[in-house]
TrEMBL record, chain B:
Protein name (Swiss-Prot/TrEMBL): ABC transporter permease
Residue spans crossing the bilayer: 52-73, 85-106, 127-156, 176-196, 203-223, 264-283
Keyword Ribosomal protein: no
Protein origin, superkingdom: Bacteria
Organism: Luedemannella flava
Pfam hit, one: ABC2_membrane_2
Keyword Acyltransferase assigned: no
Swiss-Prot/TrEMBL keywords: Membrane, Transmembrane, Transmembrane helix
């Protein structure tokens, strides 16, 4: 799809107290699962509020699903679902009642609201529990209800603010799998805000990193990692000789512990490495492709302007 | 798996379905919020605990109305007029406000649910006005039922078309008074409840706001002279509504001869009070962050 999901142009937000939350942010994102990463206070929440049309930008342009949230906030909000970071559930209502009510607040007629609510709760993994009061739910179940209320009106875009907050490792995995399914099976685009890079990296195809309100980098994860994959070689002996030989062949060799790392350009890199090992007659213990952590990439290329492919 | 092996009536997971039905937008959402608010206020669609107070209050009011009707049928004398009904039982209405308004707005503040409303087509002002409308409707309904009971009882006990017509006029005045009580008490209590997230705190503040003016009013009545005495009723919501209603319906000379000539100040004060509360409420919801 060539449709633009979110586009911002020189988006800037300065609060009356002088704090600049966003500064000159320009991104152009295609539909898919988008990770929005940044430390606390980097401007993620401000960006989300601007996307929802809840906060006017100081300057710059923004469009969500092709609609300008500053001039047509209701049209944007009818097609977007939002899951906030903090607690936002009434303890004395049941999940079924609450999600039905929220569906009606999104404009769904009474019967449709009830049907969509129970269907959505089932999709997020709440069955009989949905008739019990939310006050008695575990953190994981509450997160699912929060997700369900954002999904109940079948939006075209979901904005999830720290969806794994407060969950234990198992709950975190379950939530990430659910988000992954929403993106791949349900066909809904998502923006997942997180301060944990490793988490969003698992489920996102696009990553936007902001820091201090500025864009660090926005790129497609697969292209980012492909360009910088490395080959790790472990030999039981003669590592120094191999390193010398590979350097002669024109490869940029780095030692890391017992491994030798060479940049993986294409398949011929394998041939060069194997030829060198064979020529030196060394016992090869291990040879594998190592995926760069996205965090390394951001460290390497911080500040470099980039566009999402 | 073949179809024959499956038990009958099994629910198949057909996966996620996109919603292609109607999306009714902001006006519908605001109306739904209002209806939901009225139901919440009356304890409908909620657990038995939520029904206790509204139904108890309504029960007492209906009981009083039934007794008044019975006395009238026996003796022909109206112990309480339609317009005095709410004023005589204002303590119950104040208690109803103190329990209902926090239920409608403080609860949402405390649970942090507001961002979920504001990230939908609904506007902040729609939310504030929807809740206010629900509260006003609930306070009016609380009085409308017993007034109607009294009216029906009276219509069957008086004789002649002229008497029925008089009764109908009086009943209409009573309903107008009920609506004024709804507007004044609803606006004050929703505004106060929107300031505190804890329901108990909101409830206490509402009771204090309504009751603290009573002794001041009483003192001014005793020590005040002239205009001070005549206008002292403005600070008490109950007398404010009563006299405004008397002025509106042309009854001020009849029941409140000592106020005669000052009625318009009461009416203006009522308008200023309601408009002020609504504006402050809208301002409050423009600012509220969570």
């Amino acid at each position: 799809m060539a449709v633009t999901l979110i586009a911002t142009e020189a988006l800037t937000k300065r609060y009356p107290n002088g704090v600049t939350a966003l500064s000159d942010l320009t991104v152009d994102v295609s539909p898919g699962v988008i990770g929005l990463v940044g430390a606390n206070g980097a401007g993620k929440s401000t960006l989300i509020k601007i996307l929802l049309g809840l906060l006017p930008p100081t300057s710059g342009r923004v469009s969500v699903l092709g609609i300008d949230p500053t001039s047509e906030p209701e049209q944007v909000r009818a097609r977007v679902g939002y899951m906030p970071e903090h607690d936002c559930l009434p303890p004395d209502l049941s999940a079924a009642e609450f999600v039905t009510h929220m569906a009606r607040m999104s404009g769904l007629p009474r019967t449709a609201a009830r049907e969509r609510a129970s269907e959505t709760l089932r999709h997020v993994g709440l069955y009989e529990e949905r008739y019990r009061a939310i006050g008695g739910y575990s953190t994981g179940m509450k997160q699912r209800v929060k997700l369900a209320q954002s999904l109940v009106h079948d939006p075209d875009l979901l904005l999830l603010d720290e969806p794994t907050n407060g969950l234990d490792p198992a709950g975190r995995d379950a939530m990430l799998n659910l988000i992954d399914r929403i993106g791949s099976e349900f066909g809904i685009s998502l923006v997942v805000c997180s301060h944990l890079l490793g988490e969003v990296e698992r489920i996102c195809d696009t990553l936007i990193a902001i820091d201090g309100g500025r864009l660090l980098r926005a790129a497609n994860i697969s292209t980012m990692t492909k360009a910088s994959d490395v080959l790790a070689i472990e030999v039981t002996e003669g590592a120094d000789a191999l390193a010398a030989r590979l350097t002669e062949s024109g490869l940029d060799v780095r030692a890391e512990g017992r491994d030798l790392l060479v940049p993986l350009a294409d398949d011929t890199t394998y041939d060069v490495v194997l030829a060198a090992v064979a020529a030196l007659n060394l016992p090869l213990h291990r040879l594998d492709q190592r995926r760069h952590h996205v965090s390394d990439l951001f460290r390497d290329t911080a500040g470099e302007p980039a566009h999402v492919g | 798996m073949s179809v024959e092996n499956q038990p009958a009536g099994v629910i198949h997971d057909i996966g996620y379905q996109r919603y292609a039905g109607a999306r009714l937008g902001r006006g519908y959402a605001a109306r739904s919020l209002y209806v939901h608010g009225v139901r919440t206020a009356l304890g409908l669609g909620r657990g038995p605990k939520a029904k206790i107070f509204p139904w108890l209050a309504e029960g007492i009011l209906l009981l009083v109305a039934a007794i008044v009707t019975a006395i009238r049928a026996q003796t022909g004398e109206a112990v309480i007029s339609y317009t005095e009904f709410a004023a005589q039982l204002s303590f119950l209405i104040i208690l109803f406000c103190a329990t209902t308004a926090p239920e409608l707005v403080s609860r949402d503040l405390r649970s942090g649910v507001l961002p979920l409303y504001f990230s939908r087509p609904l506007r902040r002002s729609d939310y504030a006005l929807g809740k206010l409308g629900a509260m006003v409707t609930a306070v009016w309904l609380l009085q409308a039922l017993p007034l109607t009971l009294m009216y029906l009882g009276a219509v069957f006990s008086v004789k002649g078309g002229r008497a029925v017509w008089h009764e109908t006029v009086d009943y209409s005045k009573g309903q107008l008074s009920a609506l004024l009580f709804g507007l004044v008490f609803g606006a004050i209590s929703i505004l106060i409840a929107s300031l505190a997230g804890r329901r108990a705190v909101s409830a206490a503040l509402i009771v204090v706001a309504f009751l603290v003016t009573s002794p001041i009013f009483g003192v001014l009545q005793v020590i005040g002279t002239g205009a001070v005495k005549q206008l002292s009723g403005i600070i008490n919501p109950v007398s404010l509504v009563l006299i405004t209603n008397a002025w509106l319906t042309g009854d001020q000379g009849k029941d409140f001869d000592e106020i005669a000539g000052y009625g318009i100040y009461y009416a203006l004060s009522t308008v200023v009070l309601i408009v002020g509360c609504v504006l402050l409420l809208l301002l409050r919801y423009r600012k509220v962050a969570r």
